[in-house]
Every structure is written in structure tokens, then in C-alpha cells.
Specification:
The structure holds 2 protein chains of 2 kinds. Chain A contains 3 helices and 1 strand, in the order H-H-H-E. By secondary structure, chain A is an all-alpha fold. Chain A has one domain (7-64). Chain A is flat, with a radius of gyration of 14 Å. Chain A starts with 9 loop residues before the first helix and ends with a strand. Chain B has a single domain (2-177), classed as START domain (Alpha-D-Glucose-1,6-Bisphosphate, Chain A, domain 4, 2-Layer Sandwich), CATH 3.30.530.20. Chain B has a 7-stranded antiparallel beta sheet with strand order 1-7-6-5-4-3-2. In chain B, a hairpin with a 4-residue loop joins strand 4 (75-85) and strand 5. In chain B, helix 1 packs across helix 2. The radius of gyration of chain B is 19 Å and the shape is elongated. The chains are: A mainly alpha, B alpha+beta. Chain A: Pfam families: UPF0203. Chain A: InterPro entries: MDM35_apoptosis. Chain A: This is Mitochondrial distribution and morphology protein 35.
């Protein structure tokens, strides 16, 4: 598994990745699209956001995300997996 | 000037495995330039489509003729946005670099679908746009460098994917063997 941009986040990332990979291959691809691993993602993401701010790439990333290639999900659907 | 690149390739693996390999592909022996990769956002919409944004940090490579004083470091941040629809078996990914964009911006879109004839194979269509806004009369030379580098990198990325796909195939095979053992014993 690849490491995180924040060295202190790599542990959280690997825990989340392990959960996601299992869910993706065993459930999602088989048609069960109920999100899982959300708590692990929350912790991991919080850690990464701090690291991005420290490295001062948070605004660069935010600007880039304004021109997303894919339209945002329809109104009532922004549950994080 | 802008350079366009288009290419279609087929993997000898089913769509599920190729789509899975996309998430597992770092690290692999052919991607030593990838320093780290993070999921920034991930959501599923009402139609069951998974949307993901990842940030990947890569060690870039500058050509020898490029004036080094213009670049403090050659690490490149790459944003990778993707969507996966398991119902229609379609995965689309778009990547582009976030920094060094004046020197060169590379935007790549990959569409991953089952092979139209053979369902055990997967088609990957790659489209890329390479553009340099660099002055000093160098934009065209940079774009040409970008173009030749891009095709080299695409080949390397494919080797990396094949490596991961082989690992997935072996794992599945082992699981099946393990599952069958009690019956054959």
C-alpha cells in the first residue's frame, strides 16, 4: 500500500485502504453499493487535511477541484464511503 | 500549440479486476516515481456510482536541456478524479498535474470498459492533452518532450497494472483452490 503525504497519516490510510479494498472487491463490484469504512475515512481525511495545509497545497487543490470533470452528485446524495 | 494523444489497449483480465487493480496499483515495481497517494474525497450517489478524488505526488523528470533555475523542485502533485459505475461496468478517470502548469500541463482521461467481444478482457481508452505555456520559445520543445515522455510513461503504467492484475489473478486462484481443498480431500 502506498504511503500518505503526511507521514503521520500513513497508518490511518492503510487501515482505511484495507477496509475500502475489501468493500470494493467483495461488495461494491458485486452490486452492494451501501457505503462502509466511513469512520476510518473520517479519521484518515482529517489527518491528510492537516498535512495538506502544512505543505500549503490545500488552496492549490481546492482551486483545481472547482473544475471537476464529473458533475457533482445529485442533490440528496453526498454520503461519503 | 497543444499535443493530443489517443490510444486504446486491452488487458487480458475481466473488468472487475482491472477496476480493482486501479486502486491497488501503487506501489508497484514500475512506479518508483510515485511518492504517495491519498484519497481526498469519496462518495456514492443515488445511482450507485462511486466518485473519488485522489491526490498523488510524483517525482517528475526534467529534460537535461531545460533551464533548471525555473524549477525549485521537480515533484508534481497530480489530481486524479474518477467514477465507477458497477451496473454499466464503466470506470472513467481523469488526471492532471496541479503545479508546474505553466511549464507543462498534462491532462489524461481513461475510460475502462469490458471488451466489446471478449468479456474476459478489458478495454482501456486513453486520451491526453499536453500543453505548455512556457515562454523563451521553448513551449513546442517542451510539448514534444511531454509527448514522448507520455507514451513511455503509459507503457510503464501498463506494466505496473499487469503486475497488479497478475497478483489479483493468483490470489483469486489460491482462494478457489483453498475453497476446493476440503472437497477433494
Amino acid at each position: 500500500m502506498s504511503s500518505s503525504i503526511g507521514t503521520e497519516c500513513t497508518d490511518l490510510k492503510q487501515k482505511y485502504d484495507t477496509c475500502f479494498n475489501k468493500w470494493y472487491s467483495e461488495k461494491f463490484l458485486k452490486g452492494d453499493t451501501t457505503p462502509e469504512c466511513e469512520d476510518l475515512f473520517k479519521d484518515y481525511k482529517a489527518c491528510v487535511m492537516v498535512a495538506l495545509k502544512e505543505k500549503q497545497i490545500d488552496t492549490l487543490l481546492a482551486d483545481a477541484r472547482k473544475e471537476s470533470p464529473f458533475p457533482p452528485p445529485s442533490s440528496s446524495s453526498n454520503s461519503e464511503a | 500549440m497543444v499535443k493530443f494523444f489517443q490510444h486504446t489497449f486491452a488487458y487480458d483480465h475481466p473488468w472487475e479486476n482491472v477496476s480493482y487493480a486501479f486502486w491497488l496499483r501503487y506501489p508497484n515495481p514500475f512506479a518508483s516515481h510515485v511518492l504517495c497517494a491519498d484519497v481526498i474525497d469519496r462518495s456514492i450517489n443515488d445511482d450507485g456510482v462511486l466518485t473519488t478524488t485522489r491526490l498523488v505526488l510524483k517525482q517528475g523528470k526534467l529534460p537535461k536541456w531545460f533551464p533548471q533555475q525555473f524549477v525549485k523542485n521537480s515533484e508534481a502533485y497530480v489530481i486524479e478524479e474518477s467514477l465507477v459505475d458497477p451496473k454499466t461496468m464503466r470506470m472513467v478517470t481523469r488526471t492532471r498535474n496541479l503545479n508546474h502548469v505553466r511549464i507543462m500541463q498534462v491532462e489524461e482521461t481513461q475510460t475502462i470498459t469490458p471488451h466489446p467481444v471478449n468479456p474476459d478482457m478489458t478495454t482501456v481508452k486513453t486520451e491526453a492533452r499536453i500543453i505548455s505555456k512556457f515562454g523563451w520559445g521553448m513551449a513546442q520543445r517542451i510539448e514534444m518532450f511531454g509527448e514522448s515522455n507520455f507514451s513511455k510513461n503509459t507503457a510503464k503504467a501498463r506494466q505496473g497494472m499487469k503486475h497488479i492484475l497478475q497478483m489479483i489473478r493468483e490470489k483469486r486462484l489460491r482462494e478457489r483452490m483453498g475453497f476446493m481443498q476440503p472437497q477433494t480431500a
